[in-house]
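ugh ok fine here u go
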Amino acid sequence: MAINNNQQKILTLVEGKAADIQTIDNNLLMEKAAVAMAIAKLRETLDKLEGHLNDREFQKASHVGYDELAHHFVYVQRTLAGLQTAAYQKEGLISNIAQEASAAYEEVAPHVDQKMQMAEKR
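structure:
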């Protein structure tokens, strides 16, 4: 009986945090998109660099490497930092719910993930 009460408490708390969960889910999706765009720009620049190397245009290759490639690499790192921050926010929310419910993190996480997937389907 205690297990059912605990599960119900978790579900109630998760439902009460639905807006926060949706915000975090949106943040994760936006940050994931930013990382994907940054990686695409990095790949494009690597292709450009490779083209210069294949054409034996070493000075142009060097310029692309030191300027564009370095810029896009830093951009990937920055977008990954944003993604990591959003992931930490999700973990913090799960931990807070688990603490309120006197439950383990692992008991709460699937319910939060399910709520995020529900928001994704909308």
